[in-house]
Amino acid sequence: MIFSWKEDRAVEPDAAKVDEIVDWFAREREAHLSEGRCLELAQLFHPRVIFLKTLRHASRVLDVGAGDGSLPIFKSWPQPVREDLRMYAFSLEKGANFDAYEGYEIGNWEKVRPDFGGMKFDAIFSSHFIEHIRDPLEFISWSAERLSPGGRLYVEWPSDESLGMPSRDELVARGVDIMISNFRDDKTHRELPIAHEVATRMRAAGLEVDLQGKARNPYLEEEVMALFGKNGKDASAVQLAFWSKYRWAQYFVSTRT
């Protein structure tokens, strides 16, 4: 199945939301955490890190669309330490941190699938990858085939809310320096996968949906903004807080039955 834009999902950004976001960024806040503790907790309570930290002992984890290769950082930080996890990466090009994986393969998903000698994985992790490929549902089916019994799948991608956000250019013009706001800010994005279609494919492929939702943390998004919102010291943390505030990212966790 090849995805294309659906007119009934087109959302015109609300001009009033620009003012709302500008006001939210400019708000005066008092921090209650140190910078280090804030960053630690912001990651620890994110669904993707919860997924990794709660995998069974000595799990083999495949990171599909691994980007710069930052996932192994979470083996040792924050607590609990999970050095028992064995991580492998697949991506278009070698990321800066790929040598931290047990192994990696470089390839274009549209032309070749991860092989790793036919290895079965105890977990497959995919964060902001399926919105970049032609057939996200085929990725779900492929993942189910490569998971060992009881293996777990984590998939995260933009929510429908991202379609109605102001563009990055609109926000930057108002002094809000954010990396991405509207789904279409990233020209490599294809179609936005529909959540219920992803869930249906998971079940058809033998995956039981354990968790689904939007990545939200109202407490820590305010702490991040209090500490980093105006000083430019951690753009990634501010982006995470922004996505949390506006329900920008959704996720599914499922288990191969």
UniProtKB/TrEMBL annotation:
<protein>
    <submittedName>
        <fullName>Class I SAM-dependent methyltransferase</fullName>
    </submittedName>
</protein>
<dbReference type="Pfam" id="PF13489">
    <property type="entry name" value="Methyltransf_23"/>
</dbReference>
<dbReference type="GO" id="GO:0008168">
    <property type="term" value="F:methyltransferase activity"/>
</dbReference>
<dbReference type="GO" id="GO:0032259">
    <property type="term" value="P:methylation"/>
</dbReference>
<keyword id="KW-0808">Transferase</keyword>
<dbReference type="InterPro" id="IPR029063">
    <property type="entry name" value="SAM-dependent_MTases_sf"/>
</dbReference>
<keyword id="KW-0489">Methyltransferase</keyword>
